[in-house]
Design a protein that fits this description.
A hairpin with a 6-residue loop joins β7 and β8. Helix content is 70%, strand content 5%. The chain has a domain of 155 residues.
Amino acid sequence: MARVAKVEPQPVSTGSTLVVMVGLGIAFLLFMAFLNVVKSGNLLNDSNLLYAALIFYAGAGTLYLGFGITGTPSYIRYASLATWAGLLANTGAVARRWYEAGHPPFASIYEMLLMFVWTLAVLTLVAEKKFGVKVIGTVTMPLAIVGVVLMQLLRTEVHPLVPALQSTWLHVHVTLAMLAYAACALSFALAMMFLIKDKMKTETFLAATSLFGVATYAGVLTRFEKWGGLSVIAWNPEEKSEVFLSKGVRLFVVIPDLGWLLLLVLAAVAAPLVLYLMWRKSHDEQWLNMANRAVFLSLLLQVLALGFFLMRAGGGSYASLDADGLFPASLAASPFILSGLVGAIFVSLLYLLLLWRREELERMLPTADELDRVTYKTIAIAFPLLTLMIAAGAYWANRTWGSYWSWDPKETWAAITWLVYAGYLHMRITRGWRGRRAAYFAILGFGIVLFTFFGVTYLLPGMHAYA
């Protein structure tokens, strides 16, 4: 009797599905953007180039995430191509801004963010190609996307440089800062990858994700009003600027009921942390399962809150507690609230990716020792850049203001950032710190970098208010 060969069913390849969908999405968005700007005759301005960069970075982020979920190699190739395309558009925006301003784009928070995103994209490609950390884009591309979204909201007008900025040392100081901050961002992403590879418990990431969400919404809710509204800065659409009651005093308007919604979301993002603590106390897995379901529920509520914030803060006029009449609101007046809401959503998504695809992610990463070593190398590059940045800033300050150090908030927090990374290198070299303790230092350091870059600018204004 003839033997019948058993034919095993072949899995259906889905390697091209996401690539085609992302490609079509990019093509459609670029085509629609082209139709919107072709009538103006000014196609290659920095705003349009940044919009193209945003589309490509979003496509790259989607493909990096797809690679993290499926492990399909083709996704990485096309994610890299999308990142290169975004970097090319980003470079065009930098060049165009430089040409329009007549000086390197270092004079405002918008221009500094433009250079930060550019440098972050470059370092993402370097980490992927040189060190083989192929899923690094799942962390760095969301940072780039949030950065470009912020740039779309910040004021973009080119103004003559104030006297304090009319110096070659501006170029030196800010170039060093952006290179250092981007390297710190990369070290943060690598440290997160290390913790995954080093078998840190998934529930620990759960607690950290919930804590990040709590901190984000608690910060936003510092503008909560007694009757449930949320205060946002009023916007002057004619002058495209914030409204001021007096010099340095912004006018706030109150969006009704939005505070109650964000308070509900705060409770939702805190629930996983509470359930995690219950699990730690009782060791009953039921609490942990409930906590993971609570993360998914909180993500849905966060998306809902983001939608409401976009609708309410993106337009309309509201009353103020400090002046009579109605005043317009705009997302351009609240860019960092928006970035916080978007950032919390990204963090929740990344946790769910880790929860559902932990083993696959671990197989895609280099060894824990390699990740630890690359994190150290990245910080070893960032630290001398930070040192030179502070030294150049001090020399420039002495030439401009007659003092090397004035304990300005930006100076103080730059020094704190420097001390954290100095502590990392000191403990590693003298005490042999490796592994998780070193990773925690890298994560803490980047958190302080974010506050130094963004928080100080808006919460603690001083001589660096223009930056």
